[in-house]
Specification:
Elements (H helix, E strand, L loop, with lengths): L2 H7 L12 H13 L3 H14 L4 H12 L17 H18 L7 E2 L2 E3 L6 E6 L4 E8 L2 E9 L2 E2 L16 E10 L10 E5 L4 H5 L8 E3 L11 E3 L3 E2 L2 H8 L8 E5 L4 E2 L1 H23 L3 H5 L2 E7 L2 E2 H13 L4 E13 L2 E15 L2 E14 L2 E9 L1
Parallel strand pairs: 3-12, 6-10, 9-11, 14-19
Antiparallel strand pairs: 1-13, 2-16, 3-4, 4-5, 7-8, 7-12, 8-9, 14-15, 16-17, 17-18, 18-19
């Protein structure tokens, strides 16, 4: 029996439920192969190819099963000594699809990034590039609960986009900014595209460029693309893109893309949330004190907002605060998200309700906070 299939599927449970998704239908067939139940395997993959005749991986498995009537199977894509990049990529797709079933996520842990979601966010999307998977988390009183997941394709060169044309998918925190229906696109993008806010302010500060990073569908002649096949976008099967759409709020839904998700216990998430929230509240209180020196202790020496550096910003705060007899600052719709790959870096968004003796103002803001010498400090701020 093929070592490839045994390695993939030895731990896979039998899956008999009606209406199975493509991953589970494919796994049923591969499991049957690994147990030498060839007729059953062929029946399972036949149903899958009838449902999705453009599913290249399923067609490959079906071809293997037909060939198995004449000779023993050696591996997925039973081509003897012949090897090709396309075949290896299809094998990678098989591994990633089956991995989602044989190597389940820890039920007692959550992604480290979703510290607190504003009530205005119904869901958040978290991409794990290493697993070719997109996870959907529902916002339950600010806490993340996983409700769905999908197989995805990322950039040909992997994750960590730096520049235009590098064929990499960005790592960072973004939002869904719009939806482009299929009638506005070529067939290459499938059933539509959700556009992402790449590059964000931090990407720009780091010199990262490029554009057109989307979450989109697959061409009509391809059910799904192999794990690394895009120019940097996140790509789903068209039916999966349609299902994903029910969770998305245009202009709202955050998308966190990580090379490999860090999983932590809920109590660790609570501790990290409290730590950052305490720093933000102290910043708010020190602003209300009208003592500009106390306020400015919360800002990194590398701070920037618009065209101002810390020196220009500090001069402005000293001047403005000196003219105030009182200040009140409220923060509404607060979201706290840690940056992927950087546990001491966070994106904080809120609506700032500023009141003073001579000004009343509500302003949506985004701030990037970095921990410096053990203290959280603001390194970048954008008023929206």
């Amino acid at each position: 029996m093929t070592r490839f299939l045994l390695a993939l599927l030895l731990a896979t449970p039998t899956l008999q439920a009606a209406g199975l998704d493509a991953d589970r239908q494919l796994a049923n067939s591969l499991l049957a192969i690994s147990q030498s139940r060839m007729p059953e395997a062929l029946t399972a993959v036949d149903k899958l190819t009838q449902q999705h005749p453009n599913f290249r991986l399923a067609q490959l498995v079906k071809g293997d099963l037909l060939l198995a009537r004449a000779q023993p199977l050696q591996t997925l894509g039973n081509t003897g000594s012949a090897r090709s990049a396309d075949l290896e990529q299809l094998r990678d797709e098989a591994r990633q699809r089956v991995r989602a079933l044989t190597d389940p996520l820890p039920n007692d842990k959550v992604p480290a990034y979703l510290l607190n979601l504003s009530d205005s966010y119904r869901h958040a999307l978290v991409v794990d590039a290493s697993r070719s998977r997109l996870y959907v988390y529902a916002n339950r009183a600010g806490k993340p609960i996983r409700v769905a997941d999908f197989y995805i394709t990322i950039g040909k060169a992997g994750a960590g986009k730096q520049k235009e044309g590098d064929n990499r998918t960005p790592i960072g925190i973004y939002a869904i900014s719009s939806f482009k229906p299929s009638r506005e696109l070529t067939d290459f993008y499938g059933s539509g595209a959700f556009t992402l806010t790449y590059p964000n302010e931090w990407d720009t500060r780091q010199g990262r460029n490029g554009h057109g990073i989307w979450i989109h569908g697959s061409p009509s002649n391809t059910y799904s693309r192999t794990p690394r096949a895009s120019e940097g976008c996140v790509v789903l099967a068209n039916d999966d893109l349609s299902r994903l759409g029910q969770y998305i709020q245009i202009g709202k839904t955050p998308v966190i893309i990580a090379e490999q998700i860090e999983w932590i216990a809920p109590e660790t998430l609570d501790a990290r949330r409290s730590d950052l929230a305490a720093a933000i509240d102290q910043w708010r209180q020190d602003w209300e004190s009208r003592d500009a020196s106390r306020l400015l202790r919360h800002y990194s020496t590398a701070f920037r907002t618009g065209s101002q550096n810390l020196q220009a910003f500090a001069a402005s705060k000293h001047k403005v605060n000196a003219a105030k007899s009182w200040i009140k600052v409220g923060l509404d719709d607060v979201s706290l998200m840690l940056y992927p790959e950087r546990p001491d870096f966070a994106l904080v968004s809120f609506v700032q309700d500023y009141q003073s003796n001579n000004l009343s103002d509500r302003t949506p803001k985004r701030q990037f906070w970095a921990r410096e010498n053990g203290r959280w400090k603001i390194i970048h701020e954008t008023s929206l």
